[in-house]
Design a protein that fits this description.
Largest sheet: 5 strands, parallel
Strand content: 15-25%
Order of helices and strands: EEEHEHEEEHEHEHEHHEEEHHH
Number of strands: 13
Helix content: 25-40%
Structural class: alpha/beta
CATH topology: UDP-N-acetylmuramoyl-L-alanine:D-glutamate ligase
Distance between the termini: 20 Å
CATH architecture: 3-Layer(aba) Sandwich
Number of helices: 10
CATH class: Alpha Beta
Length: 310
């Protein structure tokens, strides 16, 4: 099945991303600690993360041209976060550091037995975009606009501009935000965590939930990521269930696996792949990401992705 989208030609960027960046402090422990207990950590690492920033870095590694729109603080973490993207070739024309703001951080506890993680995060309100501050010009230069909805009003403005300019709109959603129902109808690809449909609709059955989401909001493709089990997409009236790939060498960390899934799906879309093949690519990128600790550490290049897909 082919994607039901027309990909615009002759744009400066393949993908423009708007949303979160972060600096992650990853703490590996032999097992997740019980309440009111102590556990000695095995290793401690600082690494770049954030949903959209990670997705842009992953797409850039696969050879696409990306632009990240977002804000950092004027602290050491902000300098670090900006450098990790610029070093990868991600365009930062529409990124900025806000005087006096603290860069978003996350403390991530990773259970070494299975690589599953718990995230404790904080985002400075000074990093938020208002609707008037949304850089609409950036969106018009893209083939795909990819977002997280943390600044919903700004996101709505950018998604509306994208739709007006024939840009495909892709989402990364895992929580319910105020005014989210105004934003969802603007997404062409509504890709969510498996918990989001339950939070929004109260529907546990995944196929029923995806059907309701498509009917209610009109998104061409709706889907959920399912961790090691893979993914479930609904395109038209067809469900596409795609198994996950075993992580080469075993799963070390699931941080950023959902972001990596979107890397593969958007990459497949822009390379003219079928929805089925793009879903396989998405699951493969997510599996490869889990080879090492950190959201971006093990994002694959073209050869690594191709080798796993064989």
């Amino acid at each position: 099945m082919q994607f039901p989208f027309h990909v615009p030609a002759d744009r400066k960027f393949d993908v423009v991303g708007f949303g979160t960046n972060a600096v992650d402090y990853l703490i590996q422990v032999p097992h997740y600690p019980a309440f009111n207990s102590k556990v000695e950590l095995t290793e401690y690492t600082q690494a770049a993360g954030g949903e959209v920033a990670t997705t842009m870095a992953g797409l850039q590694r696969l050879g696409l041209k990306t632009c990240y729109v977002g804000r950092f603080g004027t602290d050491a973490a902000g300098d670090f976060g900006m450098k990790t993207l610029s070093d990868k070739g991600v365009d930062l024309t529409y990124a900025e550091q806000i005087e006096g703001a603290k860069t978003q951080i996350a403390f991530i506890v990773i259970d070494e037995r299975n690589g599953e993680r718990t995230v404790i995060w904080q985002r400075d309100k000074k990093l938020s975009f208002t609707e008037k501050e949304a850089p609409l010009k950036a969106v018009s230069q893209a083939k795909v606009f990819h977002f997280t909805p943390h600044d919903v009003q700004a996101c709505i403005a950018m998604a509306k501009r994208a739709k007006a300019d024939g840009v495909i709109v892709s989402s990364d959603i895992d929580n319910v935000f105020d005014r989210i129902e105004k934003l969802l109808p603007l997404a062409d690809m509504l890709i969510m965590s498996s918990e989001f449909p339950v939070k929004l609709l109260g529907i546990v059955d995944r196929r029923m939930a995806l059907t309701e989401l498509r009917s209610r909001y009109g998104c061409e493709i709706v889907g959920v990521t399912l961790g090691e089990s893979g993914s479930l997409l609904l395109c038209g009236d067809t469900f596409i269930e795609t198994p996950g790939f075993p992580v080469p060498g075993g799963c070390k960390d699931t941080t950023g696996a959902g972001d990596a899934f979107r890397v593969g799906l958007i990459y497949g879309l822009l390379k003219g792949e079928s929805v089925e093949n793009a879903a396989r690519m998405a699951n493969a990128v997510a599996a490869l990401k889990c080879r090492a600790v950190g959201a971006r550490t093990a994002l694959p290049d073209i050869k690594e992705l191709s080798d796993l897909l064989i």
